[in-house]
Design a protein that fits this description.
- This protein is an all-beta fold and 119 residues long.
- Helix content is 0%, strand content 51%.
- It is built from no helices and eleven strands.
- It has strands at residues 3-7, 10-12, 18-25, 32-39, 46-51, 57-59, 67-72, 77-82, 91-99, 108-109, 113-117.
- The strands form two sheets. Strands 2, 4, 5, 6, 9, 10 and 11 form a seven-stranded mixed sheet that branches. It has a four-stranded antiparallel sheet with strand order 1-3-8-7, with no helix packed on it.
Amino acid sequence: QVTLVESGGGLVQPGGSLRLSCAASTSIFGFIVMGWYRQAPGRLREEVAIVTPGSSTRYSDSVKGRFTISRDNSKSTVYLQMNSLQPDDTAVYYCNAYDMRAAPRYDYWGQGTQVTVSS
């Protein structure tokens, strides 16, 4: 069982920065792949970035070079540093987690946090 609590969303001007945090309540964080997804109005939820227990990362092409995902295993927390934000980044951002050992995969989701990029 994994419970996820996100924080850090808000309103920011184009070109600005935000940092999202997601705290995981679980005893197996060392086996959990963590990620961030987002969903804009009228669009499907899309993967933004993921980080493995060994801190390997993957980014969508739309955020590569602007966003950085990281994890602090001592705090069971994952972060998403978002720089050079653009209006197209406006969406609800969701924290995601899954146990890399589980088959089939089972996804856990946070409640979502709104990010709005607007002048």
